[in-house]
């Protein structure tokens, strides 16, 4: 399989941009066009394969919420809404679904007041670990033939990309490297 290098995308991409009335595509713009397209495909492939994996019990929002609570510890609805950049009603519905499944528990905020905090239950953490294992297996299938150094470079670059997004948004995501290996 031939993969176009960043410096020479297929000619039809450049012609397509020119047909749309835009100026000729420069090298930097071509690279950004390639990156945007590949990120779109990455999101599509990752989400579609994750949803199709047999045995996975958590939907995307549950997986992300449990992951965030696992890394950050307990959080209030307001903190979760801020972390995910969602309105409180959306987070409330998502957390409510996790409560009904027994994957999170609510408890009084130790700082007092009316606020409640949420943390994953043992069952929630077990399910997260099981789904994470299935997800890792699926990703592992895709990169099974990659040399270890290329895989490590990809992980480093993807991590840097995500950290840079978080910096632009002013919304860092907690992460620990290789805590689930």
UniProtKB/TrEMBL annotation:
Give me the segments passing through the membrane. Answer: none
User: Mind telling me which PROSITE patterns this protein's record contains?
Assistant: HTH_MARR_2 (PS50995)
Enumerate the spans annotated as HTH marR-type domain. 32-163
List the residue ranges of the region (Disordered). Answer: 1-30
SUPFAM superfamilies registered for this protein in UniProt? Winged helix' DNA-binding domain (SSF46785)
Xref: PANTHER family = CONSERVED PROTEIN, HTH-TYPE TRANSCRIPTIONAL REGULATOR RV0880
This protein is called what?
MarR family transcriptional regulator
């Amino acid at each position: 399989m031939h993969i176009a290098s960043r410096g020479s995308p297929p000619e039809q991409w450049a012609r397509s941009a020119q047909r749309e009335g835009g100026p000729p595509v420069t090298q930097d713009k071509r690279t950004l066009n390639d990156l945007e397209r590949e990120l779109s495909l990455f999101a599509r492939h990752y989400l579609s394969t994750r949803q199709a994996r047999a045995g996975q019990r958590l939907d995307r929002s549950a997986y992300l919420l449990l992951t965030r609570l696992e890394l950050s510890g307990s959080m209030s609805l307001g903190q979760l809404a801020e972390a995910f950049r969602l309105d409180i009603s959306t987070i409330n519905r998502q957390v409510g679904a996790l409560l009904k499944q027994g994957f999170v528990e609510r408890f009084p905020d130790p700082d007092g007041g009316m606020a409640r905090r949420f943390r994953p239950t043992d069952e929630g953490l077990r399910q997260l670990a099981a789904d994470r294992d299935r997800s890792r297996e699926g990703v592992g299938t895709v990169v099974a033939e990659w040399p270890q150094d290329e895989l490590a470079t990809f992980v480093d670059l993807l991590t840097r990309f995500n950290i840079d997004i978080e910096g632009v948004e002013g919304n860092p995501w907690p992460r620990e490297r290789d805590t689930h290996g």
